[in-house]
């Protein structure tokens, strides 16, 4: 693994951040500097997008002409592969320019690349030449050769790749901190939880707010137990996995980002009601989750702020989920050994909440944090961004000062211009590597942004008040003629599907598809910078709290765009050093 957390590196980025933070501010993406004289516009502020504009407003706001005049002629005629090679691909070495680029444009690209954390993952042999997926998917593109078959069931390739690598890092943290307990928050269907529990022998408590996902996770646990015992009964099994002494324990509860760590621990402790015994033998009907199987029993806990669940859940405070054997018990007298917190793509404020619990809770020894959905992070300017999940019940009155997902550190919070708009944070969630691949392939998917921008122009003509009206994704839009796409989209915003569309105007806008792609690529160029700023803020927060941390590009970015993992342990221990994790042959399918 490659780590980015050494003192000299972090210190240098702090100083760099003092300049960089003003370039991605409340107005969106900016490149600023001190102008030498009017002739040197390379140093002047260049706004590419603003907090009030996005790619769908390309025509209505005439966004192309917001670019510096010297940039427009050299960018408008680029082919799609040239956009990938000359703008977005950090690793591209032999760039061939079709024309002379302005120094300001070259400086903009170089600055964006320099300010972003490196994302390339280089362990496990990398990828084969011409292949998008890692080598572990060489034999079967949907099954990782490094993950046992019992852990691949119901799991997509991306998730297989993630749970194996993250699970091994969590295991290393447990070994270095001398604890075997793990709390997996935002566990979903429990894929990571199962691998850590059954595959790595850790004692795992999984916390998930969605009751249906918890029920699914427990059903999958039963299926895995049945498959595991069935495999071990085979005479040909050369390396049987022992039946686990404990199974993951699933808690159905919402983690309140405004609650204290004591409330979080209380939430986990209140779920420790009872556990079920390991089945004495496989029961196909029971473990496979047939229709006759009784409804999985789940732990229902109140939100961690102490408020009560609504009345419809008054009868759902059931016993512990089907979790054979002992699990992570959070009784007061057993909290001292500690546990590791982990969250695989914990959405929005959940990641920052877990970091705060890690810092303040004496029982949490280490953490692995993989963030996502940066646009759902709360800020002082936007405490309730669109898409924020509402709590299951109105939170109790809290007199504590408000805490936001960004910024977390005192340093970043003290910087002028540190604010990040919703648009900037939303852009940080885009997959750069996937878009580069589309550019090089000349994918038809590239026309969807132009389609949406053109449709926006006609919607504004008919209803000026419908600015950026929400239109859900139209399936296979790139395969449709624009008129058909427009018909489907107009209905979704309440306009007649037969709204007149000027054919000449439509043709003129569609001819500018190349410009739309270039403009979007300029936005995308800064997406890793915004993500790096958010993650750097969290690293600085940990450093201000006296905690050593490292940022690991753990996943292959072509498969998992949010591939940076923040790893930290309390003083007295160190994050795992760079090495190839020892492979358990029993975890590798034959």
What is the structure about, briefly put?
The protein has 590 residues and is an alpha/beta fold. It contains 18 helices and eleven strands.
Write the layout of secondary structure elements.
Layout: H1 7-20, E1 24-25, E2 28-31, E3 46-47, H2 72-75, H3 80-88, H4 103-115, H5 157-177, E4 181-185, H6 191-199, E5 203-208, H7 211-233, E6 249-252, H8 261-270, H9 284-287, E7 299-300, E8 339-347, H10 349-360, E9 364-372, H11 410-414, H12 422-427, H13 432-441, H14 448-462, H15 482-492, H16 503-510, H17 513-525, H18 527-544, E10 548-553, E11 564-569
Helix pairs in contact: 1-18, 3-13, 3-17, 5-6
* Number of distinct beta strands: 11
Average pLDDT confidence is: 77
- The largest beta-sheet arranges its strands as 7-6-5-4-8-9-11-10
Note the run of SSEs as H and E. HEEEHHHHEHEHEHHEEHEHHHHHHHHEE
Largest sheet: 8 strands, mixed
Note the overall shape: globular
Counting helices, strands and paired strands, the structural category is: alpha/beta
Distance between the termini: 26 Å
Radius of gyration: 26 Å
Helix content: 25-40%
Tell me the β content. Answer: 5-15%
- Contiguous helical run count: 18
Can you tell me the residue ranges where pLDDT is under 50 for at least 5 consecutive residues? 1-15, 18-52, 272-303, 306-336, 578-590
């Amino acid at each position: 693994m490659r780590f980015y957390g050494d003192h000299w590196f972090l210190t240098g980025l702090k100083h760099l951040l003092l300049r960089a933070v003003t370039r991605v501010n409340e107005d969106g993406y900016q490149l600023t500097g001190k102008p030498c004289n009017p002739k040197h516009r390379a140093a002047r502020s260049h706004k590419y997008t603003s907090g009030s504009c996005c790619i769908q407003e390309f025509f209505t706001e005439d966004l192309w002409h917001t670019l510096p005049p010297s940039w427009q002629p050299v960018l408008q005629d680029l082919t799609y592969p040239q956009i990938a090679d000359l703008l977005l691909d950090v690793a591209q070495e032999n760039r061939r320019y079709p024309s002379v680029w302005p120094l300001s444009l070259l400086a903009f690209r170089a600055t964006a690349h320099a300010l972003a954390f490196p994302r390339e993952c280089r362990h496990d042999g990398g990828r084969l030449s011409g292949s998008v997926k890692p080598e572990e998917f060489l034999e079967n593109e949907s099954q990782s050769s490094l993950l046992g078959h019992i852990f691949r069931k119901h799991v997509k390739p991306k998730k297989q790749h993630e749970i194996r690598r993250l699970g091994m890092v969590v295991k290393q943290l447990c070994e270095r901190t001398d604890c075997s307990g793990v709390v997996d928050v935002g566990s979903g269907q429990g894929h990571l939880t199962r691998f850590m529990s059954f595959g790595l022998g850790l004692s795992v408590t999984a916390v998930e707010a969605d009751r249906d996902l918890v029920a699914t996770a427990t059903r999958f646990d039963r299926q895995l137990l049945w498959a595991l015992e069935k495999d071990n009964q085979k005479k040909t099994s050369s390396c049987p996995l022992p039946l686990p002494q404990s199974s993951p324990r699933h808690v159905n509860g919402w983690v309140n980002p405004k609650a204290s760590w004591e409330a979080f621990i209380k939430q986990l402790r209140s779920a420790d009601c009872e556990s079920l015994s390991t089945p004495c033998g496989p029961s196909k009907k029971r473990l496979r989750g047939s229709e006759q199987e009784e409804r999985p029993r789940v732990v229902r806990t109140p939100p961690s702020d102490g408020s009560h669940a609504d009345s419809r859940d008054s009868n759902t405070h059931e016993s512990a989920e089907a979790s054979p054997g002992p699990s992570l018990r959070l009784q007061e007298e057993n909290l001292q050994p500690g546990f590791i917190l982990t969250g695989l793509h914990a959405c929005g404020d959940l990641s920052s909440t877990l970091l705060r619990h890690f810092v303040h809770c004496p029982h949490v020894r280490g953490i692995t944090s993989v963030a996502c959905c940066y646009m759902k992070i709360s800020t002082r300017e936007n405490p309730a961004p669109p898409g924020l999940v509402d709590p299951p019940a109105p939170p109790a009155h809290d007199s504590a000062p408000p805490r936001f997902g960004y910024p977390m550190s005192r340093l970043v919070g003290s910087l002028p211009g540190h604010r990040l708009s919703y648009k900037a944070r939303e852009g940080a969630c885009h997959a750069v590597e996937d878009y580069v691949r589309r550019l090089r392939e000349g994918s038809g998917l590239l026309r969807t942004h132009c389609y949406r921008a053109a449709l926006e122009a006609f919607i504004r003509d008919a209803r000026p008040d419908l600015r950026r009206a929400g239109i859900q994704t139209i399936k296979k839009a790139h395969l449709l003629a624009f008129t058909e796409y427009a018909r489907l989209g107009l209905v979704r915003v309440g306009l007649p599907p037969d709204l007149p569309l000027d054919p000449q105007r439509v043709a003129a806008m569609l001819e500018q598809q190349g410009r739309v792609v270039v403009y979007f690529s300029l936005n995308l160029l800064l997406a890793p910078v915004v993500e790096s700023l958010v993650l750097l803020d969290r690293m600085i927060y940990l450093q201000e709290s006296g905690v050593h941390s490292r940022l690991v590009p753990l996943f292959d970015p072509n498969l998992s765009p949010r591939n940076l993992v923040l790893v930290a342990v309390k003083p007295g221990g160190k994050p795992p050093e760079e090495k190839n994790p020892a492979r358990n042959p029993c975890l590798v399918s034959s």
